[in-house]
Amino acid sequence: MQRKLTGPLLAVVAIVYATTLLTSCASYKKSIYFQDIPDSLQAPVTVPVVAYEPPKIKPNDILSISVQTIEDKDIAKAGATTAPSGQGSSTAVTGYKVDENGDVDVPMVGTVHLAGMTTSEAKEAVRAKAKHNFVDPVVNVAFANHFIDVIGEVSRNGRIPLPDEKVSIIDAISMAGDLGIQGKRYNVLLMRDEGDKKVCTRFNLNSTKLFQSPYYYVKSGDIIYVEPNKAKSRNGETDYSRDRYIGYIASFVSVGLALYNIIYTQSRNR
């Protein structure tokens, strides 16, 4: 009697244990970033990264522009007030919109055409124009309205202002507080407007191949969506069905063990 029941029973127990173990291992593995980098390295691994192309200024962009000088007489010539003695004087203009012709009207500097330029090129263009009123002006130009939207399974959903021009998909996810444990790291969606089309692409954060994607660096207006895994139900709440099934199996095994113990005990008493 013992031989007939022990084999099948042990097989059931082994299958339940193996299923639980494999499920746990699979979930753990999917949550690890950059799995193709070995755990233990004898030497640093070099991973190629796609070349970065700075964004170009275009109509309807809003720019933060500042023009600074320490020459009081030059500020006075332009009709501005001076700073207290011993401090630098400056004029600062922020939040200026690029018009439909690609021009920006900078107070005390004039109208400057900036469309099609990077911010570095725009800085030189404004500086050249500012030299008519100021001696050795220091100019800064930056985008004031660049943002991305990160939604889905991240810690902080919503619109995120871009603190710098060079922001990668990894930077964006970091600014959103990282993915939740139930976010699909191997299927992150990025949507981008290009002309009159919406371009969609996906990233696998488990692999370093994402560094070579032409969409690795985000652009203003990009939408990043982190899809939930199957542990999430359609209404957005956690679905514990898998855990329930494992619990049912464990219960059946427990009942089977109890029955086996009863039958085995009775057979020995005969």
Describe it.
With 270 residues, this protein is α+β, with helices and mostly antiparallel strands. Among the domains are: 2-30 and 240-269; 62-143, 2-Layer Sandwich (wza like fold), CATH 3.30.1950.10. The chain has 5 helices and 10 strands. It has helices at residues 2-30, 72-77, 119-130, 169-175, 241-269; strands at 62-69, 89-97, 103-106, 110-113, 138-143, 147-152, 158-161, 188-194, 197-203, 223-226. The strands form 3 sheets. It has a 5-stranded mixed β-sheet with strand order 7-6-10-8-9, covered by helices on one side. The protein has a 3-stranded antiparallel β-sheet with strand order 2-1-5. Strands 3-4 form a two-stranded antiparallel ribbon. The longest helix has 29 residues, at 2-30. The relative contact order is 0.14.
In brief:
This protein is of the alpha+beta class. Helix content is about 30%, strand content about 20%.
For the structure shown, list the relevant keywords.
270 residues, alpha+beta, wza like fold, five-stranded mixed beta sheet, 5 helices, disordered N terminus
